[in-house]
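INPUT
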Amino acid sequence: MTPRRKRLLAVIAIVAGVGSAVALAMFAFEDNLLYFYNPTQVMAGEAPAGRTFRIGGVVTRGSVQRADGSLKVRFVVTDYQKSIPVSYEGLLPDLFREGQGVIAHGRLTESGEFVADEVLAKHDENYMPPEVADSLHPPPPEPAG
Amino acid sequence: MIPEIGHFALILALLLAISQAFFGLAGAARRHAGWMAAGRSAVVGQFVFTALAFGALTYAFVQKDFSVLYVATNSNSELPLFYRVAATWGGHEGSLLLWALSLAGWSVAVTALSASLDAPFRARVIGILGLISIGFLLFMLTTSNPFDRLVPAAADGNDLNPLLQDFALAVHPPILYLGYVGFAVAFAFACATLLEGRLDAAWAKWTRPWTLAAWMFLTVGIALGSWWAYYELGWGGWWFWDPVENASFMPWLAGTALIHSLAVTEKRGLFKSWTLLLAVTAFSLSLLGTFLVRSGVLISVHAFATDPARGIFILGFLTAVIGGALVLYAWRAPGLKSAAGFEITSRESFLLFNNALLVAALGLILLGTLYPLFMDALELGKISVGPPYFELVFLVPMLPLLALLGVGMHAAWKRGLLQSKRRRLMAVAGASLALAVVVGAAAYGALRPLTTIGLALALWVMGASLLELVQRLRGRQGLPGAVLGMVIAHFGLGLATLGVTGVQSFKIEKDVALGVGDAATIAGYEFRLAAMRDVRGPNYIGVEADVLVSRDGRAVTTLKPQKRLYNSGGNPMTEAGIEVGAARDLFAALGDDLGQGRWSLRLQYKPLIRYIWLGALLIALGGGIAALDRRYRRRAEASEPAMVATADASG
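OUTPUT
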């Protein structure tokens, strides 16, 4: 083989390798896009069934219920227009509090309950997750930080 | 008074940066020795005044001067001294000042250590560094002045975010910034090369130690951030593919590609224009990272709308730096030709693969990081890209990278791989695979394909590094710092791979609800909640649990996770209890009081996790040793690329 052909082969190998990596990444990209919906959108049926997504809103005051001594917890997330009941089992983040913004990742059941596998609250007491702040109907009250 | 002195010093620093840029660039253009010397003096002046400004801000923090807005926002009268000092860079304005100080520091170092370069080139490098300083100082003075007064003064400060009140995170930003900003040196060398239209590869030799030093700091900075996230965020993860992390990881990937491509350019005069482009890219990503994290754009794209001056300045500055460099590149790079050929199994080929794979990973991570921002800015919906995407697009290029690395290290420049090397490498590869199967099956009782591949690649990279070391020590060519550094860094990469594979494959996490006296068992370790007590720190109160860990009835350790409430108000903080071990970490984090005397706890078993950070430190150490290679300290003789004979000696 001439050096020229060798170089050509190397270039072809690189292009093929990078190309297949990109193709693979594109599939991965599509599968891992997490969409965000507020309770109003979920109630209007905009959220996909049978696929995980994120919801966000404010934890309704007085809605957090714990079965005593267990890790199961239920609460209601609202955007001040519509509300969704959420159930979760596990440790809640430090910043989880009634009246504060949260984001939950999970899926919607037939009965209209959102079963979360992850609950996020950002690490700043003055912080309202931007998706949540934007999606509330009346503007959010002054943060109580 | 002191804050005003700081403000004034910052203005003087800006004026000196302007003269540094002007006398550097114009002096080089006119070959005016006096002007070029003036440019060098301005560098020192700029450093002195930036340091003075930084000192004034630190002083305001130490003195608890809450009449300074930035101090009142980021500190508090109860904050211990160490964190008051660290709070200097705890917010946007202060971190920009730290950035500028770091840049001034690098500029002084470059000026002091570049006496052997030809004068106009040196002056141009200094001038370009000056241009970057101007951008940062101007940005601070016009939109983010850390010395703005608060009238009337606050009675007490707002407090530094409790999460940031931690040793690793206090030292993380300065080290990370030394890394980010260090790429400015490579950038300045690249731009000066393009400005002069140099056709030789001497600049690659001059740039290499600087790039290695910056890369070393960046590596340590990222490792510190990951370590901090592990023990301080409370939930035991070590990497989240969060945009903030990606912002520091992308320049690292570009920098890694750059140090490898610089090797080819220096030794063989190949990939010249590609290397220049990478130098521009690494610094551009550093700038992008700084601004992504510090401008608030990650928290909300609409942060720009609330503070348009800042946003417009940032976009303008990024456009000027990146656009300017790319225009320069487009103008000059076509003149750069590399004519030498090389064999498919030569070191050049392997470094080419290294670059292709690193840049592919970099591009895909960039896509995943910026795509949600674009979608949001264009009002096309709110999305985020999940960690599985990043894991996949990172893993796919990294597996072949690790596989090729072991061979590439042993390949000679220009020629194909020697037969004798082939046999030894085959032996190392076989042994790694066999050992991976045995270790996976015996130690963890599992033989999953990806785990086995990960273990085999880790052992392969470490084995190939050791083989290189042994051959070097036996051979007659000696062991120059550059080679020793390479071997250590690659061994560290293998070690980090081992850690990642171990923890990702075999970790166990369990959330449990325990009353005092109850126990839960994971991975054969029994975690018993023995006692709960109240604790009091300098500026917080909290509860602490005693978690007795035992295995087969024998006590292993007592973990003491805490839940803290800081006096400045706000939310509780979790301090995990961690037992560090060579084979595994045991981890307990305290959740909430569940009522009826029960508490929620997260228990974790994290095998081999320490090797991730130990590996990263070895990588950084390797970079440092390579940067100090004697070869770079010799007076740079004019410009000829190193001859093939010397290049072969290191193959």
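end of record. The radius of gyration of chain B is 26 Å.
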